[in-house]
Amino acid sequence: MHFKEVDCGNYRIFAGAIERTRAYGYVAAVVVMRLEQGRPQHEVFRDENMAGGYGWPSPAEALRHAVREGQRAVSSRAPQRPYGAVVA
């Protein structure tokens, strides 16, 4: 297994490249957590079998795909107010 963590604003992307057991290549997986100061991390997105289980030829390619999809998940979320912010 190969892993990579990437911070993206108030989110942390955990990407993984998992070697396939019965076939060639690596499966990409991603978990995105929202980070709030003083509060536990909150999972906002997860995909453990990306691209339908496609076998990426190298762990680097699988990780690149997982990070890109994690960034896409973050950018598609509505902007969030910081914890404790007052709305006028």
Task: Describe the fold and architecture.
Strand 2 (11-19) and strand 3 form a beta hairpin. This protein has 88 residues and is an alpha+beta fold. The chain has a 4-stranded antiparallel β-sheet, covered by helices on one side. It is built from 1 helix and 4 strands. It has one helix spanning 59-75, and strands at 2-8, 11-19, 26-34, 42-47. It is elongated, with a radius of gyration of 15 Å. The model has no long low-confidence stretch (mean pLDDT 88).
Give me a quick take on this structure:
The chain has 88 residues and is an alpha+beta fold.
Spell out the key features of this protein.
single chain, 4 strands, 88 residues, elongated, alpha+beta, four-stranded antiparallel sheet
Mean of residue pLDDT? 88
Elements, N to C (H/E): EEEEH
- Gyration radius, rounded: 15 Å
Q: Look at the helices and sheets and give the structural class.
A: alpha+beta
What are the segments in which pLDDT stays under 50 over at least 5 consecutive residues?
none
Count the beta strands: 4
Helical fraction equals 10-25%
Strand order, sheet with most strands: 1-2-3-4
Taken from the alpha-carbon principal axes, the silhouette is: elongated
Number of helices: 1
Strand content: 35-45%
Distance between the termini: 48 Å
**Mind describing the biggest β-sheet?**
4 strands, antiparallel
SSE layout:
Elements: E1 2-8, E2 11-19, E3 26-34, E4 42-47, H1 59-75
Antiparallel strand pairs: 1-2, 2-3, 3-4
